[in-house]
Sequence to fold (626 residues):
Amino acid sequence: MPRAIGIDLGTTNSLVAHVDERNRPRILPVDEGKPLLASAVFYPPDGAVEVGGAAKRRAPERPVDTILSVKRFMGRGPGDIRPEDRGIYQFDEVGAMVRLRVGGGKRTVTPIEVSAEILRVLRRAAGEALGGAPGGCVITVPAYFDDAQRQATKDAGRLAGLDVLRLLNEPTAAAVAYGLDKRSQGVFAVYDLGGGTFDVSILRLEEGVFEVLSTVGDTHLGGDDFDRLVARALLEGGLTPPDPDPSPAVLRGAVAAAQRIREALTDREAVEAEVELPEGHRLRARLTRAELEALIQPVVERTAAPCRAALRDAGVEKVDGVVLVGGATRTPLVRRHVKALFGQEPLTDLDPDTVVALGAAVQADALDRGGREDVLLLDVIPLSLGVEMMGGVVEKIILRNSTIPASATQQFTTYADGQTGMVIHVVQGERELARDCRSLARFTLKGIPPMPAGIARVEITYSVDADGILQVSARELTTGIEQRIQVKPTYGLTEEEVEHMLVESIEHAEEDVSERFLREWRVEGDRILSSLETAFAMDGELLQPDERAAVEERMRGLRTAMEGTDYLAVKAWIESVDAASKAFAERRMDKHVAKAMAGHRVDEFGDAPPATGAKGEDQDQGQEDG
Fold:
């Protein structure tokens, strides 16, 4: 019987694991008998693609054709490419997806295709170790990967021939591994500093239930940044012959040397090395641990703000333990920094390089067996999901930090008489206005029966699956007509953009709320003015000239207030118009009730359905019911 596997598709290294016959997760050998597969892919001009350690060794001589840290590009567009990456790789600036030119310029590949090459090797290695093709798999992703990045990961898995059971946040995978081994209870922080990404998550572990209370991260922060800083320092003083503008090949060789030196300084106080680099260069290096820590201190300190934000979002001041994930957490400075941040020594029971893969294997096994009652995973949505209303305001459907999978439904109604269509504009963010949020998708529900404004009922449902993929549906309740869409953004938000959106929502909270109120009262004012103009046309004879003049005067006052920026003034004028037109509304009601009852007995109207009203022009607008 095929066995399910867990895959840690890492920025620097990737691993595969499974749960053995004794119900214990274990790492499978992949690359030349080693558990770690370098996340490196080499594309020669001719011949077979190389993956892993062999590919990584090609990087110093063939940097353009050797793709490292491809995870940084997953779900990204050309505008997201960083300057340091442009200095190494060649990109095709065509279309919405990143494309890299490789194989001596003979072909282009997408990050999805590069990741699929890595996943194929992991799948084959698992098959060899298990004596047959693996069954389903769970692939881990950084907690801050958005829809586009997650979808790209799933697509890479399918391209590699894998049955992707689900995606699992890396911090959650670590919690699974520690929780099942230690049966821990309490509130824990998972500090995940890998090769290219950083995440910190606050989780509540209680009797087998792992709930992610909050998660904050940075998709451009990791051990790779350490290595680039060290390489730059080594090149400045130790490169012979000196070169103020070293080539990509020399840079790549220096970064590889810097990584080896940094890792050696985990257990040693000083390291001396002499390294042959491409193009006849030589690097002579001596680095102490103190010098290393001085170089990387600014990068390590960048992890402090996300940690404090995660604690704040979770509503906790302290945690019961800190789990370390990622090879970069072996660095002594990082461990001291974590201790200072959280006030306690971090847990190091499990290998930080393998803990994520072990947790993925446990979850894959649970899904493969049809689920286990003692394991429940609750991840969270990093930004609120909402819909644009009349006036451009946002109604949040699923709130930020809601656990997933999640689903929420709200009813909305039409704004205008005879409206037969409604635009559903899906947005993401914390601001009050749609213009300040990220637009995810837009579609139109057509075929709404023409009715008076406010009579039709449209039910909008947002569903986020276990992989963080959003589906939106809109259904008109009287006819059952339905439209649905799966939201797949062209490319994803960077963590910096997510953080920027959160900060802006806090900084502009007061003015956003005022602007929202202004727009909502303007919409209400428009509705009242439109209704009164229609009523004048239909039943104007019910008003005395002086009564009509009084109402129209207040309508003019309302229009003037709506042109201003004081929502309280708009609200006051609406109340004034309502008061002035109250008698008119009562006379209209009496007239139409009398007309409807003419020639009938009262008991005939007991269960009569409401009238649908007259036809009107199609108007693709929507407003919330209420």
Observations:
- Residues 200 and 307 are 6 Å apart (CA to CA).
